C-alpha cells in the first residue's frame, strides 16, 4: 500500500457505520491522487445470484452524470442506423463491427446498443461481450428500436447496475471534482433504483452493506439502514 493510502486509511474508522453524507465527505477527504478520481459505490445484497429469480439488474440516469465520456457502439441498419448517427453514437454499423470484434478483438467502446432485429447477429458475441458486461439487454434499455432515446440517456449519465457472483453491485457515481452535494444526489438516485429492483424471491435483509470509495482511496462504510434518509 502506498503512503497516501496509509495516511488516508487513518482518517476512516473501520468499525464505524457512517451516514451517507459523512461517508461522502470522507471519500472526498481520502482522495489524494493527482488525477480526478472516480467515486464508486459497492452494495452487498441479500440475494443469491445463482438463482435466476434473484438477479438484480437495471439502469438509472444519474442527475449529474458520471463525468466520464462514454463511447457508444450501435448495431443497427437502415433508418435506425441513421437515427443513431444523428443522435451522436460513436460507431454505427452491423456485420462489419461484429466481424471487427470477433476477428480483431476490437473493444474501443464502453457500451453497446442494438435494435431487437439485430440481436440474432449480436448473439454471436455473447461469449466475448458477456464477461465484459457489454452485452445489450432489454432490462438496461440497450436493446431497443428507440436508439435516439437510448443514446441521449447514456450521454445524460445513464449507468447500469448488475449484481455479480458475490452478490455485490459496483457502480461509479461521479468524479471527485463533483463535490459532496452532487455525489449525494447521484448516490440517492442509485440507491432508490437498487432498492426498487429488489426481487420478490429475496428474503431477509436486502441491503446488507454499503461502502463508498475513491479510485485510490479506502472504503468508507455506510449504515445500510440510512441509505435512503
Automatic annotation (TrEMBL):
HAMAP family to which the protein is assigned, alphabetical: Ribosomal_uL1_B
Species whose genome carries this gene: Clostridium malenominatum
Pfam families: Ribosomal_L1
Gene: rplA
NCBIfam families reported in the protein's UniProt record: rplA_bact (TIGR01169)
The entry's keywords: Repressor, Ribonucleoprotein, Ribosomal protein, RNA-binding, rRNA-binding, Translation regulation, tRNA-binding
UniProt-listed PANTHER family: 54S RIBOSOMAL PROTEIN L1, MITOCHONDRIAL (PTHR36427), LARGE RIBOSOMAL SUBUNIT PROTEIN UL1M (PTHR36427:SF3)
Family: Belongs to the universal ribosomal protein uL1 family.
Source domain of life: Bacteria
Taxonomic path: Bacteria, Bacillati, Bacillota, Clostridia, Eubacteriales
Full protein name: Large ribosomal subunit protein uL1
